[in-house]
Fold this protein.
Amino acid sequence: MAMRAVLTIAVTCAVLVACSTASGGPTNGTSLRVAFWEDGTGANPDRVWTLRCDPAAGSLQRPALACQRLSAVGLKLFAPISPKVVCTEIYGGPQRARVTGMVEGKRVWANFSRTNGCNIERWAKVSPWLLPPGGVT
C-alpha cells in the first residue's frame, strides 16, 4: 500500500513538471498588437493590426517584411528616447501608436508619437512596415 502511494506521488510530480516545462516556459516567438490613433485621442484606437512571426502572419500588411525587419533590428527598435537627448521642437502631427506583445520572447510595450523631431525620427524607423507612413492611413 505504501509503495503504491509513493509511486502515485512520483508519477504525479513527473506529470506536473512535464506540463509546467511544456507550457509555462518562456517562448522565443514574436507576436505584436499595433494600436493606432489618427487624431491622437480617445480610449479606443482607430485601427488595430496584429503581427506574428515564424511563420509570418497577422492583419498587418506584408507581415513577412515586418518579421524580417524585426529580426534584423530586434528590441532596440522599441527602446524609448533617452531623456538626455535634445530634440528639435518640430510637430509632425497628432498621430500616436502603441505596440504591445512579444519580440523574440521578450515583452514589448512601446508608445510612438510625432510630437517632436526625435519622435518623428523614431516613427520613421518603423514606418511604413509597422506604422502608417506619416500617420496617413
